[in-house]
């Protein structure tokens, strides 16, 4: 697999047609200095404060790592994160994700201007943003090569923006993109025990675009572009991502509603409890065509994982674990758990 640097499309920002043309050709855009650095830094400091409060960071004075760009990033206490009980870890990550400034950052005018230019019409910013606090300990489990569309559904014209909140270095790894991989629609998957979901896109990956990124830089890519998080063998990787789609096209309910609580619980953590905040429930005022999540592909994958488990295929281990934890069918979940135990 050949690693090449991202193609820098920053100079095309002034030329909407060429920018859209580059996205249509390559399936992604690497754009420098799109988000205001001070706003990115504010979110980073708030996330780090929550991490420090949870005891996840080493003393900055003794172990802080000075990044090439001059951002001082404390080192993660990998053992402390690993020792943290699951529910506490989830609560800390949820507190990070709730930060109002994180949500606001992903609505920045400078970013929305780019996305509106690319989509050529008013944009719906998906309410469900993603914050990724990736400690080096998780390097063995990566997101794996995947496309966003099967999970996001709704409009096939949806775009993802991925942005680092701290510098991405060769050690922390960033987001790797398979250029021009977006042209054949939804691609088949294969079982892969080393990825978060247990599957990855089943295509030969000969050339990958990746590289360092600075806070403020953004990668924009299509819902069909194959991409994946790179292994993190260095320090903390902090990033945020969000999906944007034409306002006039269908949006999947799961991109709007929360499955682990209620938006009011999120807003209660915002200044003034989010009352009169234009970012609270902003989509409720919009004329959205909200559609249900189509679970058929998930069900087919669960069936495949079970069949592979019955053949004692070790590649099915993670997919069986995911099926055991998340299948809507209790009998399928129980069989997946039993097959997983037999594989161990
Ligand atoms: O940041 C990562 O590790 C993966 C991100 C990703 O896959 C995405 O934004 O769709």
From TrEMBL:
Source organism superkingdom: Bacteria
PROSITE patterns named among the record's database cross-references: FE2OG_OXY (PS51471)
Keyword list, A-Z: Dioxygenase, Iron, Metal-binding, Oxidoreductase
InterPro entries in the record: Oxoglu/Fe-dep_dioxygenase_dom (IPR005123), Phytyl_CoA_dOase-like (IPR008775)
Chain ranges of the Fe2OG dioxygenase domain: 123-246
Classification via Pfam families: PhyH
GO molecular function ontology, one term from the record: iron ion binding
Protein family per UniProt: Belongs to the iron/ascorbate-dependent oxidoreductase family.
Protein name: Phytanoyl-CoA dioxygenase PhyH
Organism expressing this protein natively: Saccharothrix carnea
């Amino acid at each position: 697999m050949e690693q090449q640097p991202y193609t820098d499309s920053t100079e095309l920002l002034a030329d909407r047609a060429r920018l859209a043309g580059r996205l249509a050709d390559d399936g992604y855009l690497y754009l420098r200095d799109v988000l205001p650095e001070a706003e990115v830094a504010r979110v980073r400091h708030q996330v780090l404060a929550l991490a420090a409060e949870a005891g996840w960071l080493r003393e900055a004075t003794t172990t802080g790592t000075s990044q090439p760009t001059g951002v001082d990033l404390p080192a993660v206490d990998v053992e402390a994160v690993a020792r943290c009980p699951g529910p506490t870890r989830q609560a800390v990550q949820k507190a990070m994700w709730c930060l109002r400034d994180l949500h606001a950052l992903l609505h920045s005018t400078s970013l929305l201007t780019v996305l509106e230019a690319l989509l050529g019409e008013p944009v719906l910013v998906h309410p469900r943003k993603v914050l990724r606090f990736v400690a080096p300990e998780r390097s063995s489990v990566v997101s794996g090569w995947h496309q966003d569309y099967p999970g996001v559904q709704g409009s096939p014209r949806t775009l993802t923006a991925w942005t680092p909140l701290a510098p991405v270095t060769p050690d922390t790894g960033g987001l790797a993109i398979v250029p021009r991989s977006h042209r054949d629609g939804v691609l088949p998957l294969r079982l892969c025990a080393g990825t978060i979901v247990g599957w990855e896109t089943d295509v030969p990956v000969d050339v990958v675009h990746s590289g360092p990124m600075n806070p403020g830089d953004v990668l924009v890519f299509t819902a069909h572009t194959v991409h994946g998080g790179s292994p993190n063998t260095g320090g903390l990787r902090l990033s945020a991502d969000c999906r944007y789609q034409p306002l006039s096209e269908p949006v999947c309910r799961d991109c709007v509603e929360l499955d682990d609580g209620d938006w009011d619980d999120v807003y209660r953590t915002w200044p003034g409890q989010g009352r009169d905040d234009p970012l609270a429930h902003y989509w409720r005022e919009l004329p959205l065509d909200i559609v249900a999540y189509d679970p058929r592909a998930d069900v087919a994958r669960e069936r495949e994982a079970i069949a592979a488990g019955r053949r004692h295929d070790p590649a099915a281990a993670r997919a069986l674990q995911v099926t055991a934890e998340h299948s809507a069918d209790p009998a399928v979940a129980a069989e997946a758990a039993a097959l997983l135990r037999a594989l161990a």
